[in-house]
Amino acid sequence: MSLIENNTEQCGNSLTRELTQNPLKKIWVPSSRNGLPDRHISQKKVCMTNCPTLIVTVGLPARGKTYISKKLTRYLNWIDVPTKEFNVGQYRRECVKIYKSFEFFRPDNEEGLKIRKQCALAALNDVRQFLTDEGGQVAVFDATNTTRERRDTIIRFAEQNGFKVFFVESVCEDPDVIAENIVQVKLGSPDYTHCNTEEAVADFMKRIKCYENSYQPLDEELDRDLSFIKIIDVGRRYLVNRVQDHIQSRIVYYLMNIHITPRSIYLCRHGESDLNIKGRIGGDSGLSARGKKYAETLGQFIQSQNIHELKVWTSQMKRTIQTAEAVGVPYEQWKALNEIDAGVCEELMYEEIQQRYPLEFALRDQDKYRYRYPKGESYEDLVQRLEPVIMELERQENVLVICHQAVMRCLLAYFLDKTAEELPYLKCPLHTVLKLTPVAYGCKVESIDLKVEAVNTHRDRPTNVDVSRLAEEALLTVPDHH
Amino acid sequence: MPRELTQNRIQKIWIPSKDDKPSMPRAPRGGPHLANPPTVIVMVGLPARGKTYMSRKLTRYLNWIGIPTKVFNVGEYRREAVKHYSSYDFFKSDNEDAVKIRQQCALAALRDVKNYLTEEDGQVAVFDATNTTRDRRDMILEFGAENGFKIFFIESVCEDPNVIACNILEVKVSCPDYQDCNKTDAMEDFKKRIECYRMNYQPLDPDQYDRSLSFIKVIDVGRRFLVNRIQDHIQSRIVYYLMNIHVQPRSIYLCRHGESQHNLQGRLGGDSGLSTRGRKFAGALAKFVEEQNLKDLKVWTSQLKRSIQTAEALNVPYEQWKALNEIDAGVCEEMTYEEVRERFPEEFSLRDQDKYYYRYPSGESYQDLVQRVEPVIMEMERQENVLVICHQAVIRCLLAYFLDKSADEMPYLKCPLHTVLKLTPVAYGCKVESISLNVEAVNTHRERPEEVKRGPSTLIRRNSVTPLTSHEPFKKPRIDGLDEPIIREVMPAQLALCSASHTTLALSTQNWLSEACLT
């Protein structure tokens, strides 16, 4: 009896669907009789939630609600959960073109109250559109939402539309933190373009006062049936109530790991490697002479920066470790930081890939983020692999990450809020350090070229990505090499 | 001058070498920076609040992810010291002799904690006792400060009488303290025992007295959590884990894909489809699942064809996880074992020397698998009824987590094709039922070779962490100043009798009932 079997032989249940492998993502999906993909099976690694989620911030002004909203949105989008924030303050600025003073926020200002309520409803309407019509999965409703009445309105809205609600409240009474917040993000707000610092601060403090009297914080007893996290004193303490599902659990974990202590994150690639010089991708080669020079220069650069308690992380590939060795401080090796696995294309030149796998080469240009190398990985896989690294980066303070081109692009996309389309084409040249410093709601980037020559490994998307294209068209954007 | 690098032969980790000999590596673990000072986790709460349940589960999880952890249950020490438990009177706060004994037991346990963390390479110790008074906790804090240990409290607060009654029935009435009692009497006595503690109970106070401590308060079996001052990565992971576990009854089904064409040829890895018998198994699996009559079963597969084909036969929605893919055999993918032995004889031999740490060239190790599969475990904890259709090495990793197997045992766990393992959490562990679906298949299991001498432990071993079982067989605590305790061994027959549910337990670890925590 032959042990080699025919793949299409059926046994038993003749209704069993055949599988075909999606050529881009290399995912097996059931196909109907004519070989076309049938029902689309969920390819997400896990079902985050079965209905859209509305995250609602709660808290007095200058408690970090917008900071949290933006950061959370950035994180969720990076892990492929379509998320959008809706800041009611922006709606208010659309409506009331010119901000005069805190008087607008006085609880007895009926005109003001009416406008503010309208703005909240307009924002909720856009939330509904995003979650129901535009494929959104999470909406972050960023406003003070300090009264139970306002929150009840939101809960009713969510119930009507089949959204889950999760509250994120920020409670803080530390005057230093509040003052710092005001300086970081309020002074530069459109509301205060015509004021000087002192006036702006004074007005803003009065604005906070307007909310204080009617503030009803989330309560362990009265709100015991709601799902929420209360963040106290910028993360010193948390109260977590009734986490309903996976996405809420991930949100809580994320919020519990972020901090606002000033620090910098340094990202760079390993020094130029022997395979880099030959124009080959992947592999586990050592540093070239120039790569070694870079490592030395990096060591000097790090010394000169005088960084407080710097942690150094590398991948488990020789070239990053060799680079770290020259820096001369203890480092940790993460397998998760290894370069993207190019599968059957490991150690090939682009010219060879075009020759041997022209279809694959074209598919990759068509959708570089989702494209998975045969027996290898995609950028999408990389992001999933790197998520624990990001989580730990959030926990840490000063860190230098010595990694690889595709990996660095993924990390950078997280910090700079780049889309899946942009991510695979971010420029991360060899021998250049990117210093990221969180500031206000985002990240300041400084690019430091350590002035050691290296090959260029960046391949732009060619104009013609069609599978029928000529080899020359495919290879147009391949960088020079030996 | 930067040091030269050599690649460790088993783990394929690059480490700096001195004089051609690999020297001590710097933090070679491929994982996050774990807190360097050891941590003592201190449980807090009235009896029957799930402290021992959480202690054991957490310890199992931490060991599995590679952090050497051990539980120190003060009730066990007490049972050593006081051979026969008579009644709840022992726990009255005015029973001076008893109070003294209990204090000595706590100190003996702490002494062993210190030994474990300083002499035995332990990284986390779980101090499982009620620790309901400030005095007792202050004493532990002092102990921590003296020895440079971090302290993290886990308090369980619950006043739901149903939950408490259920706990008492699950783990208390069948405990050694009550082996001569009937259920009703045991329940009554235990309730009075709880009252003895309640009078002096000082819960953690986040607003005043305990505001600078690091702790998590678990309220009403996870409905609510209060988390205070997380200090480091390990505490953050512990909190995340505790927030994801639940006590809802449910079952976890683990099985491999049906027999594949590569299986028939004796080939490793690859992405082949099912053989005829494999398809037959898929059909049998569908029937089996239907017969189980489960509400809301989640089905998960890997992204490899053979596991998906198996799921397809079930005709229910399933989710594909790349994380559940079989171990990557790197350059050995799709070879038979004979071909591996021929072409890579050194690799072949190295793998047998240390199968857990061994990484295929350009591939993975079991240790890598654990890290890869951890999010799956976390999600399984969140879920209820789940069927996971995966692969040999992967199922071994998952099984090792549920059955608390060591790194040493994990790569040799027997997980034959066409067999479903049904895991049901019960008391402090997991009941396992192995159900063969009676469809023939090749055997893909390779035993640990006899002739392989255990070589000198690889240098990496010293600085890396080895998942250990939570319980050391038959190592009983010793208490100074009291009579020499007799080492009491619990025979398997006794286990069956003690079991509250009276089912045969195919448990991997021994002694779980004797260690049911009662302080």
What does this structure look like?
- Chain B: GO terms for molecular function: 6-phosphofructo-2-kinase activity; ATP binding; hydrolase activity.
- Chain B: The active site is at residues 257, 326.
- Chain B: Residues 15-34 are annotated as: Disordered.
- Chain B: It comes from Danio rerio.
- The complex is a heterodimer of chains A (482) and B (519).
- Chain A has helices at 65-78, 88-95, 110-132, 148-161, 175-186, 197-212, 246-257, 274-277, 289-305, 318-327, 350-356, 358-366, 379-395, 405-416, 471-475, and strands spanning 18-21, 28-31, 53-58, 83-87, 138-142, 164-171, 228-232, 237-241, 265-269, 311-314, 331-333, 399-403, 432-439, 442-449.
- Chain A is an alpha/beta fold.
- In chain A, the strands form three sheets. In chain A, strands 4-5-3-6-7-8 form a six-stranded mixed β-sheet, with helices on both faces. A six-stranded mixed β-sheet of chain A has the order 11-10-12-9-13-14, sandwiched between helices. A two-stranded antiparallel sheet of chain A has the order 1-2.
- The radius of gyration of chain A is 26 Å and the shape is globular.
- Chain B has 519 residues and is of the alpha/beta class.
- Chain B is 36% helix and 15% strand.
- Chain B contains 16 helices and 15 strands.
- Chain B has helices at 51-64, 74-81, 96-118, 134-147, 161-172, 183-198, 233-244, 261-265, 276-292, 305-312, 337-343, 345-353, 366-382, 392-403, 459-463, 492-498, and strands spanning 4-7, 14-18, 21-22, 39-44, 69-73, 124-128, 150-157, 215-219, 224-228, 252-256, 298-301, 319-320, 386-390, 419-426, 429-436.
- In chain B, strands 5-6-4-7-8-9 form a six-stranded mixed β-sheet, with helices on both faces. In chain B, strands 12-11-13-10-14-15 form a six-stranded mixed β-sheet, sandwiched between helices. In chain B, strands 1-2-3 form a three-stranded antiparallel β-sheet, with no helix packed on it.
- At the A-B interface, strand 8, helix 7, helix 9, helix 10 and strand 11 of A face strand 9, helix 7, helix 8, helix 9 and helix 10 of B.
- Strand 8 of chain A pairs antiparallel with strand 9 (224-228) of chain B, so a sheet runs across the interface.
